[in-house]
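Question: Hello, beginner here. Any chance you could explain the protein record under this note? Any guidance would be welcome.
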Amino acid sequence: MATAEQEQIGEFLLDEKTLREIEAMKGAGQWSIVWRRIKKDKMGMLGLYIVLFLILMAFASWILLGFDNWLTELGVLYGDPEKIGSINNLYIELWLPGMPKDSPLVLFQHPRHHFAAEARLPPSFLHPFGTDGIGHDMLSRVFFGATVSLALGFIGQMTTVIIGTVLGSIAGFYGGVIDDVLQRVIEILYSMPGFILMIFIIVLFEDANIPGGRYTVVVIFFSLIGWGGTALIVRSNFFSLKQQDFVEAERALGASDMRIIFKHILPNSLAPLIIIVTLGIANTIFLFAALAFFGFGDPNAVSWGDDLNKWQNDLVDHPWMPMFPALFIFFTVLGFNLLGDALRDALDPRLKD
């Protein structure tokens, strides 16, 4: 018999909490339901806040650096000879109409310029993260390094997902010889020692004059060998979805293969792709940081992995120098992993059973 806090619906006896959840989800779309589930996951929300903060930091640093360089090239920031930090573009400065051109607002020390007399200073009010071995401000390096580090993760992962989605869709929809060839190619890719091969490719193209330097080579090679997992998941989804009634109905109405793939099957495969991208970005950032840590990054880049490589031997005597880049790599990987786990649970609630 149902109690005061329960209600009988058909054959099921539901408690008050479940009834409230059902009422809240009535008329809601899929993504609003997913968002409601994520909001209940405290660790998932923590991951979301970390990721949003890092993305905003990377975007703001890209805008500020570009704006400062543009103003300097235009000659708007003349600088004050009595203030050494304001000349020769040694600082990231902000100038707005109405402000004196010789007294712009100084925001950060420029990440590529350094003061030798200020090398290896511990964290202080002027340098909250301290300075490195040649006088760079570590806060500036960490702040502006977010752009390169996150861009590498996004570009590398999105490229592999696009390649894997296209090839997996074709193999899963058409099957036959195409699917057999794809399976053999993926088996070959999985048999390759990817990390060692990337090091070999970096050394091979070390002297090549390529825009973007070593990281362009790494992203291209990573994209060519890293799409196998995505292709297998997309292929599996296409195999199961192409037999569904709604697809057969579209075929009966004369829909083309492209319409069926892009309008019906692929949208229903977005959930696993979103999870792959979110978790994969963290893995890609960590991979590129690991390459840089072992000395195979780009020494001219402002990135967390390259700074960690430069000052790894100073951990005992000057711990702040490698510590802050390492912490931001850690928090980035943690944030994307927490968000990816929350998305996985929200998009597939059965995993919580």
